Amino acid sequence: MVNNLPKYQIATFIAILFHLIGLVGILFFSRTFFTESTLFNLLLSGLLLVWTQKEKNRHFYLFFVLAFVVGFSAEVIGVNTGLLFGNYSYGKVLGLEWLKVPLVIGVNWFIVLYCCGISISTLLTKVIDQISIKTESPPQSLKAVSVITDGATLAVLFDWLMEPVAVKLGFWQWKDNGNIPIYNFVCWLAISALLLTVFHFCKFNKQNKFAINLLLIQFMFFLLLRTFLK
Asked: Dihedral (C-alpha) 197, 203, 204, 209: value to the nearest 10 degrees?
């Protein structure tokens, strides 16, 4: 029976299960233990995204590498100089670090931007197909601008939702009285737009139902933690 299920359904079930376990564990049992399991959860989510990606080619892997490298490098600059995001530092719960930044943060940049890009691209494909039928000419420039701007905005919204939870769980901390600076979101918007430009022009299949589901799962996960975590 399981073998007959599409990959995205299997991956969605696994993601719901592990996020639900993490949510219940953090809220009602051992916050420390389940917070330290975040590393595993992020790696698992990244692997599931790669597994469910259709027709993996060099363009897909190019985006994965660039999202990892650019995202990680931006964090290194931010942590060590304060020139990006603001004045902050990482805790010790996200695993192995290099240059004061956990390596898994590069994976997280890929997860967030891939999921946002896929979600916006899927939505726009349906809208643009309808426009194309009426105008007999597909507005590709509209799609490019929308994927980049709307996808980046969605990524910033996700970061805004996640930030207070991440601080409470010890993922990182802000040094200026603990306040999250607006500059952080400005940098998120700029870097996300840059990487989503690469995402849009890289030629790989951008239909992945699991990526959309994972984004919704993570939104709900952090929304519930933001609401109930003390």
From this structure: 50
Joined tokens for residue 88: 């902050």
pTM attached to this predicted model = 0.93
Q: Are 21 and 217 in contact (CB under 8 A)?
A: no
- With CA atoms as reference, report the closest residue to 70 among 60, 62, 82: 62
pLDDT of 50 higher than 90: yes
Q: Quick check: 48 and 14 in contact, CB under 8 A? A: yes
Rounded to whole angstroms, the Cα distance separating 159 from 22 reads 19
Domain count for the chain: 1
- Within 13 Å, how many C-alpha atoms sit on residue 117's CB side? 27
Over residues 149-161, the pLDDT tens digits come to: 999 999 999 999 9
Residue reference for tokens 């194309």: 132
Contact 193, 152 (CB under 8 A): yes
Q: What are phi and psi of 49, to 5 degrees?
A: -65, -45
Read off the DSSP letter of residue 138. Answer: -
How far apart, in whole angstroms, are the C-alpha atoms of residue 86 and residue 175?
9
